UniProtKB/TrEMBL annotation:
Lipid bilayer topology: Multi-pass membrane protein
Keywords: Cell membrane, Membrane, Transmembrane, Transmembrane helix, Transport
Cellular location(s): Cell membrane
Name of the protein: ABC transporter permease
Presence of the UniProt keyword Electron transport in the record: no
Signal sequence annotation: none
Domain ABC transmembrane type-1: 57-241
InterPro entries associated with the record: MetI-like, MetI-like_sf
Protein family according to the UniProt entry: Belongs to the binding-protein-dependent transport system permease family.
Primary location: membrane
Transmembrane segment boundaries: 61-86, 172-199, 219-237
Domain of life of the source: Bacteria
Amino acid sequence: MRLQNAALGAAGLAAFLALGEAVPRLGLVKEEYFPPTSRIASAFADELSDGAFWTALGDTLAGWALGLAIAVSAGIVIGVIVSVVPYLREATASTIEFLRPIPSVALIPLAVLLYGSELRSVLLLVVYASFWQVLIQTLYGVQDVDPVAEETARSYGLGTWARIRHVLWPTALPYVMTGVRLAAAVALILAITGELVIGAPGLGARIAVAQNSQAVPEMYALIVVTGLLGLLINVGARTVERRSLAWHQSVRGEVAV
């Protein structure tokens, strides 16, 4: 089954690349706006041999990883505290619902005013966007704790931290891992968006330079790199999720299938 899925995926990718080669060659779109796949592939190879490309890639990954780490840590800690402390969930519900829908890109002017085109501007956007993914999932996970299990733990004399470790955390972990996986993708999107708009060092700034200099094949090659990066991050996040939840029924059922 896996080989069949891999073969179908490869066939679909080959068809997509062939379409990308044929459309501009047939004159359906202008090559100066959408170059053939072969030209993009050549530009991609040139990028791989350029040291500045690897520096930009490192800057993007640094902003992504640092922002994601801050967002995940803050989301888990605040989510658990808000859920455990009596009446704190009700007191913060309206504030969370007000702040959560604000698009992170709307904070770009604030980020520029505070930090200019530095890495901290990108971190502000990444942390803000990713934080809510983890926080909301943590709140849902804690809310899903079985009251009977909670009361049983209390009756056995387990303290607050022991109940969090043995009752709350195992229940909330599947939700938390879902939040982390979503946050990883959102963090990459905002990191590249911030670099593209603000001009902070990274792949986004390199895409903007390629666009402004009319280096269209290089621009598309860099866009392909961001897509591959997103794919690798998603695969990595799913792998970590499956390993962290190897004991959970959802993952065990997925493996069995």
